[in-house]
């Protein structure tokens, strides 16, 4: 499919889901009153519901989904591995751990800034560990295994930290940090995370040429004049910023970065660079759709959106593993 | 504020009780009467309150570890003098009380085990309202052999509740108790009966919410209750659950928002002291009515 046409269609899809997300909620506002509340004003309750409850939720679906999609596409290209996704190199889990460690310890009072500060610190630690392991031209397999180990350790430490908190509600929040949610977030969360995510997107998009060169292998890419250490740094930092900032406000949401690039790839010329933007848009569409489903599947009880993305993503992951094995044989 | 009741506390510290018992035996003349009273061990923070209100000090072998928590235990200051247990069957076995009192739903397995080994266990229902207090007081009085004291307390309570109670009119101010994680206290809860006795309509109950259940933030905004009672955050250790009450959507509501209106621990368990919560809420309603009309 023509690249421009693909992007156009994806933007249309994202726009429809974004509006859909704004129109769905337990308060059952009629669409006209809702849109009037959002843009023009009118009744107080409609204004507050639209601007303070539904808009931040839809915006977070958009930007966090975009981050996960673009990060997944970048990692699959960079690691030349169809099973790669942001959770894989340990960024999501370590970002959760960082946010949990700084926020729940009360070191930063109850300031909201503790969340992105902790998550970025966690993501940065993950990046530094991964870079240290990957130093000296290790294979991509080593990188993936290191990420898996880091994810397991961080998940365990996150649960431990929440169990040790004297606040009796903290242990119930394990599910939020491991299987994210966008319930009852506010514009504060959007402003906390958006600038950091945007910086991450820019870093990833800036290394799209290096990603294309890497499809021929690291040695060939180097001989083509690609600055590999720089590309590696910029992609890993870009992923850390985009995924870390998102995790700080929604918890760890899995599998979007895995599924979306695979769905989009057949529609492109299969070059990693032309997959980045469409995967971002596809990620936004998938997360917005999953978040709508999380609200309407069981009407009286909201689900965690991470549960739904895992329900879609985990079988897909198994199918990919089976297919990869068949192709290897 | 309602919190998990299985939090760990300290192990048994028996010395103060023995000392207190000794002191009591030495000082109080009718020592013979005291020795006939059954010695009690309470495993639940709500039965702790009744025991503290009714028992002779010498009767109390130990209380639950939560009895020291001022947010859950109204009598935490008096409770400080007694040893605490963690609700373990082993502790009961070592202390050998005549009676164990506990809640119906708390530590169910322990209750079964204790009955199996022949300990007398009396359980008190967790579903409490203002109306259930006199019955619980009289029953605990009978268990502890303190019927006369129980009767005095129960009668005083009934008279005071009747004098204080002002059921809400159809157009009375609507209130909602919005706790951590957006959980509200609907019909059938102690807080619901307290709100009604204080003359408020309980919005969550009117919308058909029963017990402690999550209430969507959007509905809170749409229904705009006159009064939103918010949970005070847990001191020193933040949680996302505590942050929800700071959500901008709640802050931009025109409703009156209040934290910590009822005295600490006064409505986490039902007891004669729960009238303090009724009194505080009634004063607030009268203040609101005066402000609204003035």
Q: What percent of residues of chain A adopt helix (DSSP H or I)?
A: over 70%
CATH architecture field of the largest domain in chain B: 3-Layer(aba) Sandwich
Which runs of chain B of at least 5 residues are low in confidence (pLDDT < 50)? Answer: 1-33
Give the amount of beta strand of chain B, in percent.
Answer: 5-15%
Q: In what range is the share of β-strand residues of chain A?
A: under 5%
Average pLDDT level of chain B: 86
What's the Cα radius of gyration of chain A? 20 Å
Helical stretch count of chain A? 14
3D shape of chain B: globular
Order of helices and strands of chain A: HHHHHHHHHHHHHH
Biggest interface pair, counts: A-B, 33 and 31 residues
Averaged pLDDT of chain A: 88
What can be said about this structure in brief?
Chain A is mainly alpha-helical. Chain A is 74% helix and 0% strand.
What does this structure look like?
The complex is a heterodimer of chains A (329) and B (294). Chain A has a single domain (3-328), classed as ABC transporter involved in vitamin B12 uptake, BtuC, CATH 1.10.3470.10. In chain A, 74% of the residues lie in helices and 0% in strands. Chain A has helices spanning 3-23, 31-39, 44-79, 91-104, 114-134, 140-164, 174-178, 187-206, 208-214, 218-223, 228-250, 256-264, 272-296, 305-328. In chain A, helix 3 (44-79) packs across helix 12 (256-264) and helix 4 crosses helix 11. The mean pLDDT of chain A is 88. Chain B has 2 domains: 15-126, 3-Layer(aba) Sandwich (Rossmann fold); 174-293, Nitrogenase molybdenum iron protein domain (Rossmann fold, 3-Layer(aba) Sandwich), CATH 3.40.50. Chain B has 294 residues and is α/β, with parallel strands linked by helices. The two termini of chain B are 33 Å apart. In chain B, 43% of the residues lie in helices and 14% in strands. The model of chain B is unreliable at 1-33 (pLDDT under 50). The A-B interface holds A 25-27, 29, 44-45, 48-49, 52-54, 103-106, 109-110, 112, 114, 165-170, 172-173, 176, 184, 186-188, 301 and B 3-4, 7, 180-182, 214, 216-219, 221-222, 224, 233-234, 236-244, 247-249, 252-254.
């Amino acid at each position: 499919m023509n690249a421009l046409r693909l992007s156009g269609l994806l933007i249309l899809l994202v726009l429809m889901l974004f509006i859909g997300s704004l129109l769905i909620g337990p308060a059952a506002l009629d669409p006209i009153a809702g849109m009037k509340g959002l843009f023009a004003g009118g009744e107080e309750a409609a204004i507050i519901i639209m601007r303070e409850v539904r808009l931040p939720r839809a915006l977070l679906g958009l930007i966090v989904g975009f981050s996960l999609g673009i990060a997944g596409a970048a990692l699959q290209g960079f690691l030349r591995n169809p099973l790669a996704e942001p959770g894989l190199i340990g960024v999501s889990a370590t970002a959760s751990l960082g946010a949990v460690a700084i926020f729940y310890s009360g070191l930063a009072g109850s300031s909201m800034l503790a969340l992105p500060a902790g998550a970025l610190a966690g993501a940065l630690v993950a990046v530094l560990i991964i870079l240290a392991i990957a130093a000296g031209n290790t294979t991509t397999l080593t990188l993936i295994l290191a990420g898996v180990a880091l994810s397991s350790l961080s998940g365990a430490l996150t649960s431990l930290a929440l169990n040790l908190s004297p606040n009796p509600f903290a242990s119930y929040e394990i599910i939020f940090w491991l299987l994210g949610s966008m319930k009852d977030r506010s514009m504060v969360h959007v402003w906390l995370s958006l600038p950091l995510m945007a910086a991450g997107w820019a870093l990833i998009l800036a290394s799209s040429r290096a990603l294309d060169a890497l499809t021929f292998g690291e040695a060939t890419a180097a001989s083509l004049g690609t600055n590999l250490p720089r590309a590696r740094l910029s992609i890993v930092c870009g992923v850390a910023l985009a995924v870390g900032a998102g995790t700080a406000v929604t918890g760890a949401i899995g599998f979007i970065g895995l599924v979306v690039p695979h769905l989009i790839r057949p529609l492109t010329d299969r070059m990693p660079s032309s997959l980045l933007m469409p995967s971002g848009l596809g990620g936004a569409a998938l997360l917005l759709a999953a978040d709508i489903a999380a609200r309407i599947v069981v009407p009286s009880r909201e689900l965690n959106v991470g549960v739904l993305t895992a329900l879609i993503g985990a079988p897909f992951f198994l199918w990919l593993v089976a297919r990869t094995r068949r192709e290897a044989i | 504020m309602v919190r998990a009741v299985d939090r760990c506390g300290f192990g048994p510290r028996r010395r103060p009780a023995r000392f207190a018992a000794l002191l009591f035996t030495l000082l109080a003349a009718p020592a013979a009467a005291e020795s006939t009273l059954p010695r009690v061990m309470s495993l639940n923070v709500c039965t702790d309150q009744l025991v503290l209100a009714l028992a002779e000090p010498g009767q109390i072998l130990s209380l639950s570890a939560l009895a020291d928590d001022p947010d859950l235990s109204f009598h935490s200051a008096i409770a400080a003098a007694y040893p605490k247990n963690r609700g373990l069957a082993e502790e009961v076995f070592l202390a050998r009380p005549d009676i164990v009192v506990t809640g119906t739903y708390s530590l169910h397995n322990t209750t079964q085990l204790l009955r199996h080994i022949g300990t007398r266990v009396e359980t008190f229902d967790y579903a409490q309202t203002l109306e259930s207090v006199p019955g619980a007081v009289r029953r605990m009085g009978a268990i502890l052999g303190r019927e006369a004291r129980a009767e005095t307390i129960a009668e005083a309570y009934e008279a005071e509740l009747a004098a204080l109670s002002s059921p809400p009119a159809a157009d009375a101010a609507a209130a909602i108790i919005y706790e951590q994680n957006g959980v509200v206290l609907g019909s059938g809860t102690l807080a619901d009966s307290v709100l009604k006795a204080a003359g408020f309509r309980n919005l969550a109950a009117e919308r058909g919410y029963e017990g402690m259940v999550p209430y969507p933030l959007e509905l809170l905004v749409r229904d705009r209750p006159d009064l939103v009672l918010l949970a005070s955050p847990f001191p020193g250790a933040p949680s996302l659950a505590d942050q929800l009450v700071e959500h901008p959507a709640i802050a931009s509501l025109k409703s009156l928002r209040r934290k910590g209106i009822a005295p600490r621990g006064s409505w986490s368990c039902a007891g004669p002291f729960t009238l303090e919560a009724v009194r505080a809420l009634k004063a607030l309603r009268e203040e609101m009515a005066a402000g609204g009309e003035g």
